[in-house]
Design goal:
This protein has helices at about 15-20, 25-30, 45-60, 65-70, 80-85, 90-100, 135-155, 175-180, 210-220, 230-240, 250-255, 260-270, 275-290, 295-305, 310-320, 325-340, and strands spanning about 5, 45, 110-115, 120-125, 160-165, 185, 190-195. It has about 350 residues and is an alpha+beta fold.
């Protein structure tokens, strides 16, 4: 079953669309969505349909910043019961952990991954829709919502070290600069936000300790999330370590606090293997990096830990049925065709 999202993901969509000269009803129906459903925020809909609606709305309106504009309508309450818990967590770290652990209660396609290294905290935003869908607007909406949440935790004057997007920059980045300041990076390796790790231990400015017993009851009532499997954890560590050139099974085991034999045993028990997970992760990263012209093919080979560009090319052809250059050219041509077809 493909992942779902709550209708709350489209909070403000009607008002924003009308302000930009769009008729939201027909657009929603084209994507298989019921405009009347917006009045029932907890109703679930396909997350891919939401992504398509945002992309189509941006194209027709001519506003590449559609997702960012929509984020301005978001309130903490759009997270449903989870908002009560997050608001009362004592510090930023615990609030973000609750957000990540229970994100499935409001959007099954969204993955927010918090990591720390060398005094820097990173929140990566990933959308897993179960099918090939453009997600530029959805990613910008998600990053903007997380950014607004951090500002709520840390105060309106808080600034991140960087706000990163894997996609190309817009023709006019004025809205992006207004939302995030000057620390913007496009065509980046990942989409997310980096900031000083010590901000994680800052007190949550929204929290009221007297409400903690009540919010714990709310948390206990939420559906318990699926525990991460060993394969899930290995996959996340591989994704983080692969571009560093230090992605061996020994390093992955150390990162998880176990030894190599334990990793092998646990993966075997779940009918997985380290090599298959490594290859699957490489496939996913290669698809994104080759499509992104920020990286040369030689750089991508190095980032994916291939000993030579020729080895990377042979591997890529075996996975995708063509050379990386042919794949890159085809994707760029597809993007140009979509832009032309969505024009006036």
């Amino acid at each position: 079953m493909k992942p779902l999202a709550r209708y709350a993901a489209l909070n403000g969509y009607v008002d924003l669309s009308r302000s930009l000269g769009l008729d939201p009803g027909p657009l929603m129906r084209q994507m298989g969505l019921d405009p009347a459903g917006l009045s029932v925020q907890d109703r679930w809909i396909p997350a891919a349909a939401v992504a398509r609606l945002l992309e189509r709305s941006a194209a027709i309106s001519g506003h590449e910043d559609f997702g960012l504009r929509l984020a301005e309508f978001r309130r903490l309450s759009n997270l449903g019961p989870l908002s009560l818990v997050i608001r009362e967590e004592p510090d930023v770290r615990s609030a973000l952990r609750v957000l990540g652990r229970y994100e499935h209660t409001y959007n099954e396609a969204l993955r927010t991954r918090l990591s720390e290294a060398d005094g820097t905290a990173t929140i990566r935003v990933v959308l897993e829709l179960g099918e090939q869908v453009d997600v530029r607007q959805s990613e910008e909406l998600a990053v903007a919502v997380v950014h607004r949440l951090l500002c709520g935790f840390l105060g309106p004057r808080w600034k991140p070290m960087a706000v990163c997007f894997a996609h190309r920059p817009p023709a006019d980045p004025a809205t992006h600069r207004k939302a995030f300041g000057s620390a913007l990076i496009f065509d980046h390796q990942f989409t997310g936000i980096t900031f000083p790790a010590n901000d994680l231990d800052a007190p949550n400015k929204m929290s009221d300790p007297l409400l903690r017993p009540y919010t714990q009851q709310v948390l206990d009532s939420l559906e318990p999330p699926k525990d991460a499997t060993t394969a899930d954890r290995v996959r996340e560590v591989i994704e983080l370590l692969l571009p560093t050139g230090r992605c061996s099974i020994e390093q992955v085991a150390r990162s998880l606090g176990v030894d190599r034999r334990t990793i092998h045993r646990r993966l075997t028990d779940s009918a997985e293997s380290y090599s298959s997970i490594l290859n699957d992760t490489r496939v996913d990263l290669a698809r994104r990096m080759v499509e992104n012209r920020r990286y040369s093919l030689t750089e991508i080979a190095d980032l994916l830990s291939f000993s030579a560009p020729s080895n990377f090319s042979r591997w890529f052809r075996a996975q995708f049925g063509c050379s990386p250059q042919v794949w890159r050219n085809a994707r760029q041509q597809r993007h140009r065709t979509q832009v032309i077809s969505s024009g006036p």
